[in-house]
Specification:
CATH topology of the largest domain: BirA Bifunctional Protein, domain 2
Number of domains: 2
Order of helices and strands: HEHEEHEEHEEHHEEEEE
Helix content: 10-25%
Largest sheet: 7 strands, mixed
CATH architecture of the largest domain: 2-Layer Sandwich
Radius of gyration: 20 Å
Shape: globular
Structural class: alpha+beta
Strand order of the largest sheet: 1-2-3-7-6-5-4
Mean pLDDT: 89
Number of strands: 12
Strand content: 25-35%
Distance between the termini: 59 Å
CATH class of the largest domain: Alpha Beta
Length: about 290
């Protein structure tokens, strides 16, 4: 080795702005007999944390497993979208749960997780996070974003994907943390660092998310979806908005988001006065030019 040569060169520690997650300290903080999470594994890279845990669920993995990847090569979002980011620039985490509630309530699990991410961003990051139905996590567009030509009023910072197999559900969270504007995949996305988060330490944010998720899952199993539903409605910026709903099969409908019912469905009030519950749709907020 030459004098002055960096020992970290070529390792995950070469970029100190994006250090790897530390499995041992996360396990000590989040797993154990008195804690909700049973196991926690951090891998440098995988195709998809959701796909990995779904396979483990099919093989009988018990409730309470957490899998985190510093990098994903085949991360998935809702509607088959790809979720890819530079190594160690975000959080890609999945949890395996076997909910002790009726399957009729399972639709609330992804919405509950959206509430959990807003819990963490509000409490730890100091950011006014809201939700777009069903489970996109949004932050207000900054003046800088608008100066750069963005016409919307919110930007997406996180997405959630829940998938079921048998009596298990795997919930995946993808959260942008330190991506630059150039590293983000679409103009409608943002990251914690771009929005002035109080912290961009991924360990800190991950701990906040997993602790909030454990607490809300326990409340959900004890009391059903009522408490989750009330908080979700408070934080859902879709409610009251004019929206366009892209439905399965290529059908598009516009109207006003009139609320979220007790099954987690979006109530779409169309111009003819009909109110339809939507259980699956890609929703676009239509910006009112009078308030732009």
């Amino acid at each position: 080795m030459q004098p002055g040569e960096d020992l970290a060169q070529g390792t995950p520690w070469a970029d100190l702005d994006r250090p790897p997650l530390r499995q041992s300290t996360l396990r000590a903080a989040l797993t154990g007999p008195e804690k909700h999470w049973r196991t926690l594994d951090v891998v440098a890279q995988t195709g998809s944390t959701n796909a990995d845990l779904l396979e483990r669920a099919r093989q009988g993995e018990p409730h309470g497993a957490v899998l985190v990847a510093d990098s994903q090569s085949a991360g998935r979002g809702r509607l088959g979208r790809e979720w890819v980011s530079p190594p160690r620039s975000g959080l890609a985490v999945s949890v395996l749960v076997r909910p002790q509630v009726s399957k009729d309530h399972w639709g609330w699990l992804s919405l509950l997780t959206g509430v959990v991410v807003t819990d963490a961003l509000i409490r730890v990051c100091g950011l006014p996070a809201t939700l777009k139905w069903p489970n996109d996590v949004l932050l207000p567009a900054t003046p800088k974003a608008r100066k750069n030509g963005y016409a919307g009023d919110h930007l997406k910072v996180a997405g959630i994907l829940a998938e079921a197999t048998g009596d298990a559900v795997v919930i995946g969270i993808g959260l942008n943390v330190t991506q630059t504007r150039e590293e983000l995949p679409v103009p409608t996305a943002t990251s914690l660092v771009l929005e002035g988060s109080a912290t961009t330490d991924r360990d800190t944010v991950l701990r906040a998310v997993l602790r909030a998720l454990a607490r809300r899952l326990e409340e959900f199993e004890e009391n059903g979806p009522a408490g989750t539903a009330a908080t979700y409605r408070e934080r859902c910026s879709t409610i009251g908005r004019d929206v366009r709903a892209e439905l399965p099969g290529g059908v598009s409908r516009t109207g006003t988001a009139d609320g979220v019912d007790d099954h987690g469905r979006l109530l779409l009030l169309t111009p003819d006065g009909a109110c339809s519950p939507l259980s699956a749709a890609d929703v676009v907020h239509i910006r009112n030019p009078e308030t732009a």
